[in-house]
Structure formats: C-alpha cells, structure tokens
Amino acid sequence: MINQRIPKPIRPILENYVLLTNKELPDLIGGFYIVGSIALDGFNEQYSDIDFVAVLNRKANQADIEQLAIIHKSIEKDLPTWKLSGCYIQTRDLGHFENEIAPHPYYHDGKFHEKGYFEINPITWWTMKNHGIAVTGQEPAELPFTVDWNLLIARMKDNLNSYWVSWTNRIDGFLAMLSDWGIQWTVLGVLRQYYTFRENSITTKTNAGEYALACLPSHWHSIIQEAINIREGKKKSLYRSKVSRMMTAVKFLRYVIQKSNAEFQ
Fold first, then answer.
1. Among the listed residues 37, 28, 156, 21, the one whose alpha carbon sits nearest the alpha carbon of residue 91
2. CB atoms within 10 A of CB 71
3. Which CATH class is domain 8-142?
4. pTM above 0.85, yes or no
C-alpha cells in the first residue's frame, strides 16, 4: 500500500516504478525513499520533481543499469507530467559525500547516467533522515546514518558564497532571471538558506518566502511575493518590466547573502 503522505497525483508513477522494478530487478532495490519538497509536504504541481534516493541491496551491474534506464524511459513516456529525479546508492554510502563514496548511477532531467554524483549533500541526508517517505524499505529514521548539523550549516554557507553568489554576477544568471522560473528559483532558493541559518531547520521554497515576508523589510516584499505567486501558478505579475524585476532580484540576492554572512557567523 502506498504511503499516504505521498500526494495522490504522483502515486501512479511510484506504483508503476515499484511494479516494474519488482518484476524486472527483484533483488536489486532494498529501499526507495522520497526526499525534496514532497518529503517536506511542499509538493508543487508545476515545479516539483519527484526527488528520490534508492538504496541498493548490491552494486548495480551493467545489465541492472540498462534495465533501470528502460524502466525510467517507460515511466516517463506513460506518465510524463512529473519527473523522477534521484540516485542509486549502497547502504554504506548513506550520509556521505562525493569525496567519500564511489560514483553511482542516477536519473535526472529525463536522462539515466551510469555513474556520477547527484544530490549527495547534507540537505538530502537531513531531509531523508527526518522527513523522508519510504515507498519501499525500512523507515528512514531507522536507516544507519546520522547527520552532523554543524557540517550541514558549514556546507550551506559555502554553497551560499559560491553557487548563489554566482547568480549575481553571471550574464546567464541575469538572463535566467528574466524568466518566471528564474525568479522563483533564485529568490525562494536563497531564502530557504536564510530560513535555515535563522531557524536551524529546513523548509520548502514557498514556506521560506512566506517566512521572509514576516521578517524582512517591506521594500523587498514585492519581489518575494512575486516569486511565491509564480510558484503557486498565479499569472499576473507585480512588475511592469521583466528587466526591472530581474534587477530587483539580483539586488535582493546580494542583500540576503550579505545579511546571512553578517548575522550568522
């Protein structure tokens, strides 16, 4: 029986996945876990992927990898609305990072990759351990790994000052922020980190935006609300010009990054 925390629209995809993997690869997958926004009760019909971590009983061989690729392709063809996105790892890899484990198979953006690294980070592990949804396998809280919160914060701070800073000085970043997708991704993405630094917890993009409306100066509220509206599927913009909106978003990212660095040493 499918876990009742899983939103009804995506249950057919997961039921199909379990059916196909049990049939074609019955001894491979020991547990299949939902992480990301769905695990945080923030499923968004327009923007959410079905983020997962699959824990394998054994190392996947070439035949396994080819069969997994076929399964993913079949599911995406039959049920294309939402996309599965995640990694296939060993139990011993849980809670570890890229420099500590071997490359692993993963599926993202409609492509199956035989080996590499995907979403191997403290946020994935924290979400999995504390809020993960077991589609198959033991409960996430019982899995044999722990999450070092101080390490999570340190890595998040590094991410803030590399990945998120890069959005404020790259031409392709500015171009992306001319789109609705770019506005909701950047504004709410950086606010998720601000929320974590301030509250020592992790939340969804929309919740982080609503939180920021209550604690950041009012002159930023329009860009925050714009990002929330986009994510919630509201079409009418609060801005007359996409260029003006983009410029405000860049200034906002710089503000949140500076504020985070100043306040949360």
1. 28
2. 21
3. alpha beta
4. yes
